[in-house]
Amino acid sequence: MKNPFTFGRVVDGKDYCPRPEHEALLRQSIESGHNVAVIGQRRVGKTSIILRTANTLPKQHLLYVDLLAVNTVAEIGERIGRAYIKLGHAHGFLQQAIQLFAKLRPSVSFDPITGTPSVGLAVDRSQSMQTLEDVLDQLLAGHKRDPLIVVFDEFQDVLRVEDPQKALALMRGKIQHHEDLPYVFSGSIRSKMRMIFNDPDSAFFKSAITLELEPLHLEQFEAFLTKHFEYGNRKTDADLFKDIAELGIQITGDVQQLCWALWEASEEGDTINKDTITRALERIFTLERISYEDTVSELTDVQRRCLVSLVKTGGQSIHSKLFKETSGVAQSSSITKAVNRLLDRRIVYKYRKTYQVANPFFAVWLSQKEYL
Length: 372
Ligand SMILES: Nc1ncnc2c1ncn2[C@@H]1O[C@H](COP(=O)(O)OP(=O)(O)O)[C@@H](O)[C@H]1O
Ligand SMILES: [Mg+2]
Hints:
Layout lengths: L19 H12 L4 E4 L6 H11 L4 E6 L6 H18 L3 H7 L6 E4 L6 E4 L7 H18 L2 E6 L10 H12 L7 E5 L2 H9 L10 E4 L5 H14 L3 E2 L3 H7 L5 H13 L6 E2 L1 H24 L3 H13 L7 H7 L4 H13 L3 E4 L2 E4 L2 H9 L4
Parallel strand pairs: 1-6, 1-7, 2-5, 5-6, 8-9
Antiparallel strand pairs: 3-4, 10-11
The structure holds adenosine-5'-diphosphate (ADP) and magnesium ion.
The site of magnesium ion (MG) has 3 residues, from α2.
């Protein structure tokens, strides 16, 4: 039997564990014509729940636009146009979609084997604000013909473009007139999403209902995961999921990754327990070790000590006596500087006033390396 656990990509079908409450909230907001901002850490399951919910709404096409690492205003317009033309291809309105975005001079070619379209657009970069404005107008025109739900994923990355406030003001100006066109804005970096939606100076202030998505609750998730193990004739120890949580592996996608490795490290008839966890972690470390070592070797001595101490102390307070003793770094200002660097490099992120290592497997690996 094939490994039934999935991580690192959007899940659907039998890989998707239902989260009825959040799905209902999301569905109701969309149906009532409100725009929604879905905020949650990476790998909690934002994209999966949004796609799943939007796809269950009848008579609406889902226009999914990923804004991850977008760098320019022109690119925002391009990504929207490209996504719309692909949607047109998938749902039999390719010609209309191409006409709608004629200004961007679209050219469509198809992969000879898979038939997947790839879309080329010619955007005049000196006119990028105008282009984005046109693209949003065209979306509304398209929506009038074939109703849409628009999803902007990793929306906080709009802040990366030059003059982001101007881009946001433009988008907001258009979107507020798209009354019956629902928009979902999803984002992983809480502080930045809050800056966009909760700061009175931001164009998007209070323009969307906020849905904070937490990792799947273990109570719900445990039954789902246990069943997957049972299909493969593997039993699970009564404390298995408690042990996993105690290792600090709690985010939806990370739990799935560990279960994937538990499956690989076991055989039919086995009971999955603490020993299996040890072997499963070894598998993950084997796959990821080089990137851990690269990360560590790029740190300064103080940064490395602070990182290890965050792991050892749980990341609550970086200026406590305990933290200073554990890290051997006495100066508060040095600690602040080092931790800020770890945050900038996204090795660490801030969650409810504590500092967490972004990759929990890396954290376990660090905690096992006594020499670091
Ligand atoms: N509803 C779900 N049921 C089971 N696993 C899920 C679910 N949602 C997310 N996951 C797990 O988390 C991973 C990341 O999901 P994704 O939707 O891409 O998260 P995000 O968009 O928040 O980063 C998936 O590959 C899967 O392992
Ligand atoms: Mg996502």
